[in-house]
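Students often ask why we bother predicting the structure of a whole assembly rather than each chain alone. The short answer is interfaces. A chain on its own may look different once its partners are present, and contacts between molecules only exist in the joint model. In this exercise we take two input lines together and write out one structure for the complete complex. Read the inputs first and try to guess which parts will touch.
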Amino acid sequence: MSNKIRLATVWLDGCSGCHMSFLDMDERLLELADKIELVSSPIMDAKDVPPNIDLTLIEGAVSSEEDLHKALAFRKNSKLVMAFGDCAVTGNVPSMRNMFDVDEVYNRAYVETADTQKQVPRSVVPALLARARPVHEVIHVDVHLPGCPPNADIIFYVLSELIAGRMPDPMKIGKFG
Amino acid sequence: MSESILTLSIDGKDVSAVAGQTILEVARENGIAIPTLCYLQGLTPVGACRMCLVEVKGVPKLLPACVTRAAEGMEVTTQTPRLQEYRRTIVELLFAERNHVCAVCVSNNHCELQDLARRVGMNHVRVPYRYPRLGVDATHPRFAVDHNRCVLCGRCVRVCDEIEGAHTWDFMGRGIECRVITDMNQPWGSSETCTSCGKCVHVCPTGTLTEKGRAAAEMKKRLQFLPYLTLMREARP
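Now the answer. The structure tokens for the assembled complex follow.
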């Protein structure tokens, strides 16, 4: 077997901007590809949470029962977990619903602003949690990378440091927003 | 009149001060950076935000550098692990208290609270967020106030009172209920005392007070006029 770093990326309640920013590393992705094996990601087709993950990047706040399930499952199988971007670190835009009750949020989205079929879904769509929460409030997080989104340079810096076995300090070059 | 000159040390460096100067003023004159939020040169310091707390040898409690006067032989330390931890915690509490969502804020990238977070190494907030339901008052023709972003530094209150002389702004309520208000807690647009000078907008460290018509990250505060505030006050009879 290869001794590449087993990397997973997860997309919870976010806009996928952090994943887009990841792809913005452009040709540096080739450099990373020599050192990383991507084992699960929204840009690939992995149905189950793979075992023995070295590093999981979690984008997005924990907003629904599905998000919570994923956060717990990836934490269980990962050595290191990184909160990837502002939604994962602070709750950010998804948390703006937190000043309202879940029923008010459902009503606004599925009844007040709907033209037809005014009804709140009770199946298929994962149920919302009472609040959209930063990832560190539900699982242990080893690295916090703020930014909306974090730019490609800082993602590359943080990944390079982690691959080299060092713990990066993203706040040296990163910021919220 | 001769001025009395004091000698003290800040972070192990011997510095001199004119009697009456604060620790913060002396530190800044000597290139020693102490973080501040409610302090603004030209306005009366109030020691409200506690970002500038320092340790003084022989004094058991921490002292705010902006309102503590330098004294002969004083030994001041500005960057101990305890102070750094407290400063970070203060910034975290400010972020948790209201709804500071940098990404969609008009002051994104031009915000003193956002800068402080970076400066104190706040990579996440360790206390639970409150998510209070706070409003926006956009009744003034040119300006708006978004209470979600307010840190209650009181710079708007002081600039309006001390420099503009209008005293439109004030505080209402205590503790977690505290708000900045215009006149008798009425819509800003209906204020009879506001001169629409805009000083409050530009001294506000966050995206609380803004000019209308700004989208996310577009509100740059213009602080160039601030040195004149001090001159204007000193020139008063």
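Check your guess against this: The mean pLDDT of chain B is 94.
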